[in-house]
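Hello Y.,

Per our agreement to keep a running log of every chain we model this quarter, I'm adding this entry. I've kept the format consistent with earlier entries: sequence first, then predicted structure.
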Amino acid sequence: MGEMSVGAKERIAMTSLGPRNPGIDLLRGLSILLVVLHHIGLRIPLKHGVLAGYLPEWVLGAINYNGYESVFVFFVISGFLITGNALHRWGSLNRVDARAFYVRRVARIAPCLLALLVVLSVLHGLGVQDYVIHRQGQSLPRALFAALGLHLNWYEGHFGYLPGNWDVLWSLSIEETFYLGFPIACLFIRRTWVLMLALIVLALSLPWTHAALVDNEVWQEKAYLPGMAAIATGVLGALIAARWQPGERWAVRAWIEAGCLGLASIYLIEQWLWPVLRDGCLLLLTLSVMCLLIGLQWRQAMGAWTPWRGLDWLRSFGRLSYEIYLSHMFVVTALIRVFRMYDADMKWGVLWYLPAVPLCWLLGALVARWLSVPCERWLRARLSKSPVASATPVLASASDERA
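Predicted structure for the entry above:
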């Protein structure tokens, strides 16, 4: 792997805003699907159903219990894509236009988040079961303040879990904090090598920052530093992808295959790795995702490639990952309510997964079609100071940025 020419760097960077990277969409799709399956599996575990007689428990566990790991995959992807897009637009991180960056982030995040908070507030006010905030020390105004004040993760860490539709916002608090600080860090840390050194230290701190919080299980799961370490891994990966390139296609395949192998080992056999690596499993996960993203970026830069159409459905989950993430608990909550209402047999619980997954996709697609995409376009047009920039179609420039 050698130094890149300026032209090669520009070609690499441009892939972040060119045609969507099908490999990254696929990874996002797998991650959001596992989040959905996790939230169903916590309530209707497959190990108690008919599939237990045909599949080993570790396979069923891989289907049901990789949601938390998948959120860390999203953290790495977010850092990677945000950094790659910043490099494309401004050439280097120390030239980031903070205002333009914040406009794009607000336009992307705010419509769905605000709509969700309004709906949840109404459901709480109406006393709808499964939506009422009732734990001691919790209240609707305080939960709203935590969600909008980038610390819902801290709030849950101190006062316990909120209802499921609120709980998903813990990871958004971490990502929003990253978005808030990213331009500031880029503008103040002028030298790339200093930034990369800081990123390496933060990325490698993940096992220790996660293990140090073992006395509070909820806070350990949702704390800032482990999530930021995962995001830093993605930022570091984007800088590596933009700065160097492999000389041969086999080298690109090696990065992709190494990433896939590490990711599969966590998703499939983490229970056997844990006694040896313990919290290092999360570091293996984030570094594997980084390798995979770098390889996918380089593969895209080498020329168009035709993905297997049989996985288009999963890539569509990836394209809607943000909308599905914020909305899927409405489907899961309703499904579980009906499941319990009819005292359904847990043995056949797998049958309830069949409508739940496509309904989560459908709800996410409707949210994107009627809320997030038009609102994002409108907000960018109103908030952008550059008429040219605001006129850029959202979907054309959002190949991998709509994290």
